[in-house]
Amino acid sequence: MRARFPLIVIFSAVLPVSAHVLSMSSGDLTIQGAHARYELRMPLYEVSHTREPERALLDHIRFGGASLGAHECRAESARDLYICTAEYEFPSAPDRIEVECTFPDVTVSNHVHLLRAEMAGKHDQALFDLSFPRATLRFRPPTRMETVVSESGAGFMRAWGGAAQILFLAALALAGRSRKEVLTLAAMFLAGQVAAVLIVPHTAWQPAPRFVEAATALTVSYLAVEILLLPKAGSRWLVALVLGAVHGLYFHLFLQTTGYHKSTVLAGAFVAEAIAIATLSLTFLQLDRVARVLRPVQVSASALFVFGMVWFFLRLQNCRLPTGPAATLQFCSAARLSIHIS
């Protein structure tokens, strides 16, 4: 087996333990003449460490020239949401609105905000993240090309949405023991994502973000154990398939929130993931010669395992008992039991 440079250690060191794989919020803006009403829905866990969240959140979204009026925020524990409503006044009735949203500055760097807007019976929407904090609402139907570019671009950016996503892809490149196996693992990883996106909407299961994060952490740790303890094990493609299915749950939640088309979002995500896997694999190969004596595979896999388990336990602390499927309930209960036993 070829040695690989332990870049996983670097990724693990820079990844904030408070970050989330799934970090999304949504809002609705309704404009009537020069008056607008905005409602923000943010997961409670995103604001748990934010000082004065009411002021911080509303200070980080602006609607071109509109002044903030009456506003209030409240926590709804039953829905696990932090909800803010705010009134805005424009100098005059707008025909388009320039929006600036910098929620990643007060939540986590990979946070995504979906804004839906309505004015005089016309609708528009925009997606904001660290890379795209500004957008223009024009309240006209987008062209087919604009839709494809926007949705595939969103999928591309979600695949690289944070250090955690890059870490998954780095682990996949590390697990490949040859170029052929890297291609096989990448293909099965993508197939797993497609399966999750296509199958989950037709089931009664609604995966909670915390469950997806905890399950993803366990999957990463399992892959690390296989690399470390079973270096010659076969059927590693099956592990990649499962990892892809768990990762696909994130895209399922993203598609459910945005209403985007599966094909365009996944196409953009696949391009981004293919670029990342190819780049990381080639980088590892080039660094082989300078890292052989350092036992980099063992070091990287150990760091990956520690990262996954720490991440799992941190997420498990806030694992809520959902009203949804019994599988999620059993997962949380069993995981908590394993903590007490260990």
Strand order of the largest sheet: 4-5-2-1-7-8
**Beta-strand segment tally:** 9
Outline? elongated
Task: Give me the number of helical elements.
Answer: 12
Helical proportion, percent range: 40-55%
Task: Outline the fold blueprint.
Blueprint: H1 7-14, E1 24-32, E2 35-43, H2 44-47, H3 53-59, E3 61-63, E4 67-76, E5 81-89, E6 97-101, E7 112-119, E8 122-128, E9 134-137, H4 144-159, H5 163-175, H6 179-199, H7 209-229, H8 236-258, H9 262-286, H10 288-291, H11 296-316, H12 326-341
Commentary on this structure:
By secondary structure, the chain is an alpha+beta fold. The chain has 2 domains: 7-19 and 162-341, no CATH class; 24-142. Helices cover 52% and strands 19% of the residues. The chain contains 12 helices and 9 strands. A 6-stranded mixed β-sheet has the order 4-5-2-1-7-8, sandwiched between helices. A hairpin with a 4-residue loop joins β4 (67-76) and β5 (81-89). α1 (7-14) packs antiparallel against α5 and α6 (179-199) packs antiparallel against α9 (262-286). The two termini are 33 Å apart. Residues 1-18 and 319-342 have low confidence and may be disordered.
Question: Short description, anyone?
Answer:
The protein has 342 residues and is of the alpha+beta class.
Please name the defining characteristics of this protein:
342 residues, 2 domains, six-stranded mixed beta sheet, three-stranded antiparallel beta sheet, 19% strand, disordered N terminus, disordered C terminus
